[in-house]
Amino acid sequence: MAEAVFARSKASASVAPPKPTPNREMRDDFLNASSAAYLEAMEDEYRKDPKSVPESWAGAEISEMYTAMSTGTAPMAVGRPLDAQTIQESMRLMMLIRSYQISGHSIANLDPLALDEREMPISLDPSLYGFTEDDMDRDFFIGTWKMKGFLSEDRPVQTLRQILTRLKETYCGTVGYEYMHIQDREQCNWLRAKIETERKKQYSPERKQIILDRLAWGELFEGFLSNKYSAAKRFGLEGCESLVPGFKEAIDKAAEMGVEAITIGMPHRGRLNVLANVVRKPLQTIFNEFKGGPKLVDELPNTESQYTGSGDVKYHLGTSFDRPTLRGGQIHLSLVANPSHLEAVNTVVTGKTRAKQFYTKDPNGDRSMPILLHGDGAFSGQGIVYETLDMSKLPEYSVGGTLHIVVNNQVAFTTDPKYSRSSAYCTDVAKGMEVPVFHVNGDDVEAVAWVMELATEWRMKWKTDAVVDIVCYRKYGHNEIDEPMFTQPLMYKVIQQHPSVLTKYSAKLVNEGIITPEDFVSMKEKINNIMEEEFTASKDYVPKQRDWLASHWQGFKSPDQLSRIADTGLPMDHIKNLGQLITAIPAGFTPHRVVKRVYENRRAMIENGNGIDWAMGEALAFASLLDEGNHVRLSGQDVERGTFSHRHALIHDQITGERFIPLRNVYSGNPGRGQNFFTVCNSSLSEYGVLGFELGYSLEHPNCLILWEAQFGDFSNTAQVIIDQFISSGEAKWLRQSGLTLLLPHGYDGQGPEHSSARLERFLQMADEDPTQIPEMEMERRTQLQECNWQICNVTTPANYFHMLRRQVHREFRKPLVVMSPKNLLRHPKAVSDISEFDNSDDNDSLQGVRFKRLIMDKTSKSRSMDSPAENEVERVIFCSGKVYYDLDDERDAAKNIDRVKICRIEQLAPFPWDLVKRELKRYPNAEVVWCQEEPMNMGAWWHVQPRMSTLFKDLGRSGETRYAGRKPASSPATGYAAVHAQEQAQLVADAIR
C-alpha cells in the first residue's frame, strides 16, 4: 500500500504526482506510507523545486535542514558515508525530534490524579521513521547543526536511546509545551532553547525552602478557613495550592525584569488565597469579612465620608497593595473586583493596564502588565476569552502581552471536559493567536514555578500573551458545601486518597536532606500561630475608610458628599480659537473632496457663529477638554469616520494614504503630551470585550473622558454583562467610580428592528431612583446625581451635547453616562446650535447655555417666569425626549396651534429632573399632560416617566394623569416595513399634537 502511494510520484505525466501539502495533510500522508518512500519522494520534490516542500511542514528551517545534511553538519550515523541512505536516515531522525517538539505534550505526565488515559501518537513511534531496536545504541553526530536545541550540550555524539530519553524527559515529563504553531522563527527558537537547555536546571536548596514556605502558606490558609468557617462558602484553592508559589515566582520574575505594577483579574476559585498570600491583603481584614456584613454606619469612625455601598460577597472583592519582591524592591499589585460572570473581568483588566501604561508613558508595557486567571471550563466556553486574545495585538488595545493562568480543575461546575468542549485542551483557542501554551502538572510545584517564570520571561521578551495551564483537581465540590460525588464519583474516590502537594513536596525535600521533619513541623506551627493572631485581632477590627479611590482620585466626592455644580461654557474668543485649530488641515494633505467640504463647513460654522451641527459640537467638547489637559479616548466600531459618516475625526490622504487627526492640533505644540493624548480608534467587531476594555481604562484615572460608541445602539445588548454587572452597579458593589460614557445611536427612522432602539427602557429600569419620592432639589443641598448609580440622557441639540460631555469631567465625582445618541439629528436642519449657546462670556445675555440643560422648555418660553396669563390658557403640554421632538414641532407648526400646545424636552431621564418638570407643570396648570415617545408602550421611557409624573401630580395636588402617545406594546422594537413605520410615526405625532 505504501509503495503504491509513492509510486504515483514516478508515474506518467498523465497522472499528476501528489504535491506535499502543509501540516496535517502531509503528516497524514506520512502515517499511511513507508517513511523511506515518503522521504525519497520529498527529497525528489525538493531537488526539482525547493519551494515545493512547504516550510510550514518543518518550520521555517526546511531548506537549512537540507543544506546542513548536504554539508555533513546535520545529525547522522557516525562513520557512515554521506549517501542517499544516510541523508534519509538523518531526515528521519530530525523528523522524530520535531515530532516530539510538536506532539510530546500529548503523552506528558500532566494529570496529578492519573485519570487521563492517552495513547501515544504514532508520530512519536521511532519505528514509523524506520528505526528499529538495533538502532537504539548506534551513535549519531548531533553537535553542530542549527536545529540542535537540547542537543547543544557537550555531547555532540549520542545514541538514539539517549536522544529519545532526553526527548521524553524534556517534552513528556510534568510539563507539556505547545509552541510549534508559532510562525515567528526567532520566537520559536528562543522558546526551544529555554525549554531544551534550561529546563534541567535545579533550584537551589534555599529557593526550594522558599517554595515550600509559600506552598505551606497556601495550603494552611485553606485549612484554617475550613476550621474557623466550616459552613461558609469560600471557593478554596485546595487541589491547586501550587498556584501560590507559582504566581509569586511570576511576580518576582516580572519585578526583576522591570515591571512596577501588575493588574490581576481572576474568578472566585482561590481568590481569598491569592488575596492573602499573593497580594498580601491583611489577614484580619479577610477574617473580618467572614462576619457576613459591614459595620453599621453609626459604629464607623467619624470620617469625611461614610458611604459603604451595597457591598458584595468576599470572594468578588478587589484590593491593591505594594508588596516586596523576593529579589528586593517593591511591586504594586491590583486585583480588580469582578462578578460571578466568569471571564467578564478579562478586558476590564487589560483596559486598566493600558491606561496605566498611558499615564506612566510606558507604550511597550515594560513597567505595567496584566495577569488573568481562568477556570478550564470558562477558558474554552466563554467567548470573551477569544475576544480578549483577539484584541491583544491591536495597536490601540495592546498591553504588551498578558500572562494567562488556567486553574484546570478538570471539571467545570459539574460537567466533565468531554461534555464541555470540543478541543483536546481547554487552552486550544489561544493557539489561533500564536500564543505559547505551557501545560504543567499541578502536583509538581517546582515545574509550576519554572513554567510561570518562563511564561513571564516570554511576555517580557516578546510582549505577547502566554498561557500556563496548571492541570490540577478540585478537592471539594464547586464550593465547600457542595457534594461532588453526585456527578464525579470515580474522580472523587481518587481525590479522597490523594496526598496534597504540600505533603508530597515536603517529603521530597526531607528525602533530599534540605529540611528535616522537625523543620517542617516548626514551619507549620509558625504559620498557624500567625493566622491565629490575625484571627483574634479580626474580632475587634474596625473597617477603615474604604480604599475606594486610588491616589489619582484623591479629593473626589463619594455619593454622600455634596459636589459643586460647575459651569461648562467657554469664552467666545476661546471657542473660536479652538474651532480654527480643529478645522485646520495641513498644506499638502489631500483629503477626500467630501471630507474637505465637511471641514470647510465646520470652519464656516465658527466664523458665522450659527448652524453648529452635532459633529462640530462634539469636536468642540473634545478640543476644550484636551486644551485643559484632559485625556480623551473614543473607541468602538467605525468611530473614526462615524457609522453615519458624520464625524471624520481621522481623515485619510487620498494619494498617500497618510492618516491625520485634526483634533491633535489643539496640543501639537505641547511637548508634554503624546500623540495618543487624543485617541480615536476603530475597534474589533466586539461589544463585550471592547466595552469592558474601555470601562477598565476609565477606572484608572479621573481626568479623562472615555467614550465607547456602539455601531448601532441596539448592538449594546451583546455587551450586557459589562453593562449590568460592572457599569450600572460597580460603584455600589465595589466602591469604584467610573466616568465612562456610552454613545448608543437611537431613534426611529424606519431602519428596522435592529437599527432603531438602544433599549432605553433597560437602562432606565436599572437606575436606582425611587419613583415615589421627590429628592432634595435645592442647589446647595442637592446630591441627587451623586446618589444615583448612573445618568441616562437623550439630548436634542449640539450645544447640550457639548455641555453634557464637558460636565462628565468638570465635576468632583464620576458617574457612568448612557447617551441615546441620534442618527438623523446628525444632519437635521433644526438640530443645530448657535455659538452663543456655548458662550459664558460676561457680556452673554443668555445664561442658560453655560451648562447642561436637564430639561429644555418650550421654544416659546423665553424666561423661567411662570406669570404669563397666556400660559394659563395652554390646553396641552407634551413631554418627550430625543429626536421625536422635531417631528412634534413640525406637526405643531403645520397645525398652527403653537399657542395651544407646548412641548418640553426631558434631556436627562435619569436621575429624573424633578424640579424642572415640576416647574413646567406649574407653568401650565390647566393643560392636559401628555408623554410622547417613538418606542412601543412597553419600551422606551414611558414606564420610567409615568410613576414620577404621578408622584408630582400628588405633590402639586393636581387631578388627572399623564396620557400616553406612542406606539402600541410590541415584542419587536420596531417594524421592518418602511410604509408601516411612516404610518405609525405619523399617527403617534398626530395623537400627541392634534
TrEMBL record:
Major enzyme class: oxidoreductase
**Which controlled-vocabulary keywords does the entry list?**
Magnesium, Metal-binding, Mitochondrion, Oxidoreductase, Thiamine pyrophosphate, Transit peptide
Q: Which GO terms describe its biological process?
A: tricarboxylic acid cycle
Where does the UniProt annotation locate this protein? Mitochondrion
Q: What is its main location?
A: mitochondrion
SUPFAM superfamilies in alphabetical order: Thiamin diphosphate-binding fold (THDP-binding)
Q: Which CDD domains match?
A: TPP_E1_OGDC_like
Q: Does the keyword Oxidoreductase apply?
A: yes
Its job: The 2-oxoglutarate dehydrogenase complex catalyzes the overall conversion of 2-oxoglutarate to succinyl-CoA and CO(2). It contains multiple copies of three enzymatic components: 2-oxoglutarate dehydrogenase (E1), dihydrolipoamide succinyltransferase (E2) and lipoamide dehydrogenase (E3).
The ranges of region (Disordered) come to 1-29
| Co-factor requirement | Mg(2+); thiamine diphosphate
GO cellular component terms, alphabetically, are: mitochondrion; oxoglutarate dehydrogenase complex
Protein name as annotated:
2-oxoglutarate dehydrogenase, mitochondrial
Domain of life per record: Eukaryota
Catalytic reaction list: N(6)-[(R)-lipoyl]-L-lysyl-[protein] + 2-oxoglutarate + H(+) = N(6)-[(R)-S(8)-succinyldihydrolipoyl]-L-lysyl-[protein] + CO2
* Domain Transketolase-like pyrimidine-binding, residue spans: 612-828
Point out the signal peptide segment: none
Question: Which GO MF terms does the UniProt record name?
Answer: metal ion binding; oxoglutarate dehydrogenase (succinyl-transferring) activity; thiamine pyrophosphate binding
What family classification does the UniProt entry report for this protein? Belongs to the alpha-ketoglutarate dehydrogenase family.
Tell me the organism. Answer: Ostreococcus lucimarinus (strain CCE9901)
E.C. designation(s): 1.2.4.2
